[in-house]
Amino acid sequence: MTNRTRMVAPRNVINAKQLYTFYILKELSKGQEIFGNKVLETFKNAFSTSALPFPVSSSTIYDTLYDLEQKGYVTSYWVGDEFINKRSKKMYRITDAGKEYHKLHIANYVDALNKNKSVIDMLIKMLTK
């Protein structure tokens, strides 16, 4: 019998959709416009060297953008010209409601992440010291 080491992503610690929501609203709050593949690429690059990469999902990113638009936090428009064989993409802009939501809720979300981090740090300390 061989011993196996199993690493499990902390899915119950980090809600990917919430993370994408706050990241997207943060970027849009800077006055930038964003599209789904840019978010995907940013997350893949950011976690490419991590020992346990964040489970990046394009479907969750697009679902998040759709939800943000349904809630009125972002608006979208298409760019590109099929006539000259350029692929079109859906670009997103933040609304005033999106800016307000981000402003009101980002501190609580970051605080929750910090609390989770401190619990994980404590558990590591308990197991290694």
Automatic annotation (TrEMBL):
Gene3D superfamilies: Winged helix-like DNA-binding domain superfamily/Winged helix DNA-binding domain. Pfam families: PadR. SUPFAM superfamilies: Winged helix' DNA-binding domain. Residues 24-101 form the Transcription regulator PadR N-terminal domain. It comes from the Bacteria. This is PadR family transcriptional regulator. It comes from Clostridium tarantellae.
